[in-house]
Amino acid sequence: MNKLYLIISFGISACLFLSCGQGADKTEKVNERAYQLSGNSQSGEFSMQQSSAKGDVTIGEAAFRYQIDRAPSSQLPKVKDEQGNIFVDNEIALNITRNGKTVLTKRFTKRDFSSQVESSFLSKAILEGLVFDKVVNGKMRFAASVCHPQTDLFVPLCVLVSTDGSVRIDKGSVLEDEIPGRNP
């Protein structure tokens, strides 16, 4: 899980580094690709693109199917960065079924992670994403990220879902020995 966050973070940093000195137009295009941002010229707001992912998970004898849908939400408070850019926050829907029957239907916003993320960070952050990680102790573990838009500042989080649909949110960790190319 942490490797995924680090790979994404390093990839974004590399795109930004390579874009330096190439002019404002090229830098903006690289930033939009790296962060999947779309700009609205009328409102001046940036938002991440919608995304969807689904997959199957087996826990013991039980087969589960999950679907994750991320979408920018005009209903959530906007975030303004230090340069005055305005970003639309995301809402992420997680649906899990077992044999076609709903186990969990939950919509996440960054406020769902407020017990694990400092309010000073959260006020300048957006909910970036949610991805399936693996099964841990009979629970589905999803990796989530709350980040400051267009920076490498993020808080990794774990969303643990039991087979009965109960949800627990924990703070993730980034360990130095999990950084690609680094030997402990």
What is the first-to-last residue Cα distance? 18 Å
What gyration radius follows from the Cα positions, in whole Å? 17 Å
State the secondary-structure class.
alpha+beta
Fourth-tier CATH superfamily name: Protein of unknown function DUF4738
Q: Which consecutive residue ranges, at least 5 long each, have pLDDT under 50? A: 1-35, 175-184
CATH fold descriptor: Lipocalin
Largest sheet: 4 strands, mixed
Classified by CATH, the class is Mainly Beta
Total count of domains: 1
Shape: elongated
Mean pLDDT comes to: 80
- CATH architecture designation: Beta Barrel
Describe the structure.
By secondary structure, this protein is of the alpha+beta class. The chain has one domain (2-178): Lipocalin, CATH 2.40.128. The chain has 3 helices and 12 strands, in the order ααββββββββαββββ. The strands form 3 sheets. The chain has a 4-stranded mixed sheet with strand order 1-2-6-5. Helix 1 (2-19) runs antiparallel to helix 2. The longest helix is centred in the first third of the chain and has 18 residues, at 2-19. The radius of gyration is 17 Å and the shape is elongated. Residues 1-35 and 175-184 have low confidence and may be disordered.
